[in-house]
Amino acid sequence: MAFDFDLFVIGAGSGGVRAARIAAAHGARVAIAERQYLGGTCVNVGCVPKKLMTFAASYAHHLEDAAGFGWQVGDARHDWSTLIRNKDREIDRLNRTYARLLEGPGARVFWGDAVIAGPNTVRIGAETVTAAKILVATGGRPVLPEVPGAREHGITSDDVFYLERMPERVVVVGAGYIGIEFAGIFARLGSEVTMAHRGRMILNDNFDLDARRVLQDELEKQGVVYAFDCKITGVEQSAGGLLVHRSNCAAIEVDQILFATGRAPNTQGLGLEEVGVELRGNGAVHVDDEDRTNVPSIHAIGDVTDRVQLTPVATAEGHAFADRHFGPARREVTYDNIPTAVFANPPVAQVGLTEEQAIARFGDDLDVYQAEFKAMRFALAERDEKTLMKLIVQTSTDRVVGAHMVGQDAPEIIQGFAVAVKMGATKADFDATIGIHPTSAEEFVTLRTRRPPRTAEAAAG
Fold first, then answer.
1. Is residue 126 part of a domain?
2. Quick check: 116 and 134 in contact, CB under 8 A?
3. What tens digit of pLDDT does each residue of 181-225 get?
4. Of the residues 285, 304, 326, the one at which a domain ends
5. pLDDT tens for residues 276-317?
6. 461 within domain boundaries
7. Is the terminal CB of the chain with fewer CB neighbours within 10 Å at N or C?
8. No. of H helices and E strands in the chain?
9. Residue 149, Ramachandran bin (φ over 0: left; ψ between -120 and 50: alpha; else beta)
10. Residue finishing a domain among 273, 292, 326
11. Are 30 and 130 contained in the same domain?
């Protein structure tokens, strides 16, 4: 059977665009459908604009710290509208860049809602096309909880980037990486921030316990007020803004409430179930190790599969898919030792196992090397900010199985050490590497203080 295209991609986010442009570069006839904007969540309402806002917030402390180094800065104030306007200009530039990436190798872009009408058929509005392979790369979306008033008065992370003014008082619901990042942004820009979290500590067990502890303390120093073991029971309009009702303490009046309580796969309205594609309980597309669904011609990558919700993972999956089906050589994606970061202030970054995960896997066959100190950049500034650096080592093999950092430039530093961990470097390899002095990063190759791991009971508790 002759098809209109060799590949039809639904969703022009990071993973979908990478798959489309690499497949087209290999000579495939490619089309891609998008209903909103090129670049998906990351470019438009995710990692890129959020990182720009993190940079903006960091200048608050840079200005304060400058006095210790002899600078007389004077009065300074932040203009939210300027930040949003300049952010929009940068996102527009990136959208145009993504368009060129697709147009260059000859991929055709369809604008509108794409619906899978058959194993090899896609309908976009009034137009119907066929393709040998269909790739679903529609990502995920933030969700609002079933709380009275949440939909009427609450916002999600998507909405923050379009606020006309910065809220003076804000409640952030949820202490995952999205909630943490926005809490830090608002706090450094001058908002009164309350973080409501149903747990007893920020972040979750995917992050090392010591890293969570240090970051939690640092955010509290910046003015973030925690309400742990707390559930939001209702939100209503009040004379002075919004009245937020909480399960374990008095109601609080704020200007804005941000729900950072999770994301859901974007599978509604795609026609997947109608053509027999198996979905998981949360709506995610079920795929095998090579991104295939139970319908042989339909595949899926990225957040819509709910495997690893990280932009670089979706991008890697898209590239591997294109090479696997249309390129001269296979490319594989491995999910071990994926580095990740929380762009708080200070940021957290890690690769490999946490101490708690390592205990569960290796028992007491572990050594932990750890240092907490005040970084040199704060030596002349009146700022008490801790840096944490930590290595998890399997004793019997001497292999470094985890590296963790809280501190300025942590993501930039861990990205390099992730290569070493991925290659199976040992603690002896780290020790034999000469550090760059004076840097914080050199601490990773000079760590000598060793301790045994926590007990399994302490790690679990």
1. yes
2. yes
3. 999 999 999 999 999 999 999 999 999 999 999 999 999 999 999
4. 326
5. 999 999 999 999 999 999 999 999 999 999 999 999 999 999
6. no
7. N
8. 13, 22
9. left
10. 326
11. yes
137 and 28 belong to one structural domain: yes
Look up residue 444 and give its DSSP letter: G
Active-site entry in 26, 62, 197, 437: 437
pLDDT at 458 over 80: no
Residue 450: DSSP 8-state: E
Strand, helix or coil for residue 33: strand
Q: Which candidate, 264, 323, 312, places its Cα nearest to that of 24?
A: 323
Judge whether 319 counts as a catalytic residue. no
Which two tokens mark 280? 């998981």
How many angstroms separate the CA atoms of 161 and 146, rounded?
Answer: 23
Nearest to 136 by CA among 310, 249, 292: 292
Local confidence band at 454 (pLDDT 50, 70, 90 cut-offs): confident
Instruction: Write the pLDDT tens digit of every residue in 126-156.
Output: 999 999 999 999 999 999 999 999 999 999 9
- Kindly state whether residues 107 and 25 are assigned to the same domain: yes
Taking the CA atoms of 421, 347, 48 and 377 in sequence, report the sign of the dihedral they define. negative
Residue 118 lies in a domain: yes
- Name the residue range of residue 203's domain: 150-261
The answer to whether the CB of 10 falls within 8 A of the CB of 139 is no
Exposure letters 267-296 (e unless 16+ CB within 10 A, then b):
beebbbeebebebeeebbbebeeebbbebe
Q: Are 374 and 390 in contact (CB under 8 A)?
A: no
* Total of domains in the chain: 3
Same domain, 273 and 129: yes
Do 215 and 162 have their domain in common? yes
Nearest to 22 by CA among 133, 102, 96, 94: 102
Say if 332 falls within a structural domain.
no
Residue 342 to residue 350: CA distance in whole angstroms: 9
Q: In which element (H, E) is residue 371 found?
A: strand 366-374
- Residue 346, preceding peptide bond in cis (omega within 30° of 0): yes
User: Rounded CA gap, 96 and 110, in Å?
Assistant: 15
User: What would the pLDDT profile of 61-102 be if each residue is shown by its tens digit?
Assistant: 999 999 999 999 989 999 999 999 999 999 999 999 999 999
Instruction: Mark whether 307 and 358 lie in a shared domain.
Output: no
> What pTM, to 2 d.p., does this model score?
0.95
Beta strands across the sheet bearing 241-246: 232-238, 241-246, 252-254
Q: Can you state the angle between helices 14-25 and 80-103, rounded to 10 degrees?
A: 30
Quick one: 227 and 272 in the same domain? no
| Residue closest to 378 by CA, chosen among 141, 218, 176 | 218
Cα distances (angstroms) measured from residue 111 to each of 32, 41, 100, 157, 457: 9, 17, 16, 24, 54
